[in-house]
Amino acid sequence: MESPAEKCVLKVERRPLYFEQSRARGAEGPIFGWYHSTPAALQSDCAAVICGPIGHEYTRAHRTMRHLADRLAEQGIPALRFDYHGIGDSPGAELDPDRVAYWQASVRAAIRQARALSGRERICLIGVRLGGLLAGLVAAESAVDLLVLWNVPAKGRTYVRELQAIAMASQRDPQDSERGLESAGFTMSAQTLDSLRKIDLAQRPTRVGRRVLLVGRDDIAPDTALAEHFKVQHVPCDMIRVPGWLGMMADHQFTEVPEDALDAIADWVLTNVDTCMTAPPPAHECETRVNRFVHETANGAQVQLKEEACLFGAEQHLFGVLTDAGGPKDHPVVLLANAGAIHHVGPNRLYVSLARELAAMGFPAFRFDLESLGDSVLRGAGRENYPYPENATDDVRSAIRMLQARGYRRFIVAGVCSGAHTAYRAGLDIEDARIEEMVLVNPWQFYWVEGMSLSDQQHFVDVAAYRKSMKDPNRWMKLLKGQVNVMRAARVALTHVTGAIAARAKSLGQALGLGEEPRLSRDLKRVLRTRHITMYFSEGEPGRDLLMHDAKRTAQRAMKAGRLELHAVHGADHTFSQWSARREITQRLLEHFAARYAVRGTLQPAGPRPQPFKAAA
Fold it and tell me: For the whole model, what pTM was predicted?
């Protein structure tokens, strides 16, 4: 059965765009956003600006922010959602200086753009988590009519403490990075942390013209500091508690859109606006889908890049961002497919930084969403947010056709996790395009079937985990102290040994022409005749064992022939949640492309390079 979030999506017109942020303080170029409107609906006299969360909450809440913008637009309240400078698809990086000032400038720019696009002067500012702190700061100096703060602490210090607690829960020292604080894959500099600690909305005036809504969680006690503050400021304030926060912030593939919360917010906004208004004509002249900005590469070079927001597919229903530095189209375009259910920015913004580094080196990059993921909205019945949609290969084919129409002729398909699966299947199934290489990073499976889960390859996960543990002295101490489940370890070891024997027997049988050759081995033989495959595996990943279990002989021969490469990335987890790991995999990929496609003079080594897996492993 369709959820309410899925059955109404075609009613809304969504337009991607870049819009100018004030260049005060040296901001580099326009920032990215989406404008949602429904011209056929009864129109209000107010436009909404959605200030989403930042950090790990940004990607988890992305889906909900899109549905919130849709919900408002359906009520005749056009809505603009956007990426702050240095976040998502906007220029800049999270470790650039003066982040809090830049982020406030992004909010002010979004307000100006919403007014220009909608023709309305009245603004409802909606802030979520850190986005709510920023919205509160802007509302203290710039007049807005309505203000909605969803799960927003009164003090920035409280927010920073929560980030530190998350970092500690992941067994990392909250201050162990020379860059500042690394928390759940997001890094904040010491300067940004200091700026956030100084924020106290309860100590600032407000210029909200009509009313405030404080939206709290229903699973924890509310903080009444902001309600008291608005009461003292003589600003009418409503408080509600809504369900669904934990589902909204779950792991990306398990996020749930909090329907009741969105309904409550949209209904409150509608109650406080005038809906008897003739809709002004859309102001298309004040928007652009092309952004030009200066990107500073990892080795300090300044490169002019162009990014274009692209709608493509049979019904222009798919979305992606093309990054290019211009010049001759000599090198292949690198297509980056969704990693899990994370939208096209990639895990911890990996795809954005990788695409820009690739483009600076001469490789155009196209990061895009498969239909039902991110900003490629599901057209009909089906399931949103599923990392392995049946339409994946068709969507890659649509992306290639769009790029071919722009003059590109050579392609590399790549991705992390389920994106690796998408790249692998596209390389197998798309024969009418010049795909030269598939780059698979941490693939979980080579053939995903509906209903599969982690348990389907749990043995390979266990083996990889035990291998990693064997290198940790602390794990040996736990073994000596009797704190390790020896029977379970023995069962895993026995299963692995018997499985290895069976795999070797299968390999020998193939060599002698006995038995049926596994599907993976057959497919690899076919695709490796014309295409190159490169795989990268973090520590503890099961993909290499899966490969060697079903196609060891084929893989070894391909590696010796130079058609297949397997590389280990030490010290990295599945989604490269640490800054150093993201820098490492980016550097490794850049070095690979530079060597394979004869690009010179663009790289500086990031440190000792881990050795690739050996063919005889």
Answer: 0.87
* Cα–Cα dist 25/103, whole Å: 12
Q: Which amino acid is at 610?
A: P
Q: What is the pLDDT of residues 23-62, one digit of tens each?
A: 554 445 699 999 999 987 778 899 999 999 999 999 999 9
The CA distance from 352 to 92, in Å, is: 10
Contact status, residue 338 vs residue 399, Cβ threshold 8 Å = no
Span 387-432, pLDDT tens digits: 999 999 999 999 999 999 999 999 999 999 999 999 999 999 998 8
| H helix count then E strand count, the chain | 18, 19
Each residue of 367-385: b (16+ CB within 10 Å) or e?
bbbbbbbbbbbbbeeeebb
For residue 101, give both structure tokens.
């000032």
What SS3 string covers 353-399? HHHHHHHHCCCCEEEEECCCCCCCCCCCCCCCCCCCCCCHHHHHHHH
Answer yes or no: are the C-beta atoms of 243 and 263 closer than 8 Å. Answer: no
CA 551, 555, 558, 563 torsion-angle sign: positive
d(C-alpha 72, C-alpha 264), whole Å: 11
d(C-alpha 477, C-alpha 14), whole Å:
57
Q: How far apart are CA 124 and CA 272, in angstroms?
A: 10
Q: Which residues of 461-480 are buried (b: 16+ CB within 10 A; e: fewer)?
A: bbbbebeebeeeeeeeeeee
Check: CB of residue 63 under 8 Å from CB of residue 125.
no
- Relative to beta strand 302-312, strand 318-324 is antiparallel
**Structural domains in the chain plus CATH codes:** 12-153+207-283 (3.40.50.1820), 156-198 (no CATH), 295-379+391-454+518-596 (3.40.50.1820)
Using only C-alpha atoms, the chain has a radius of gyration, in whole angstroms, of: 25
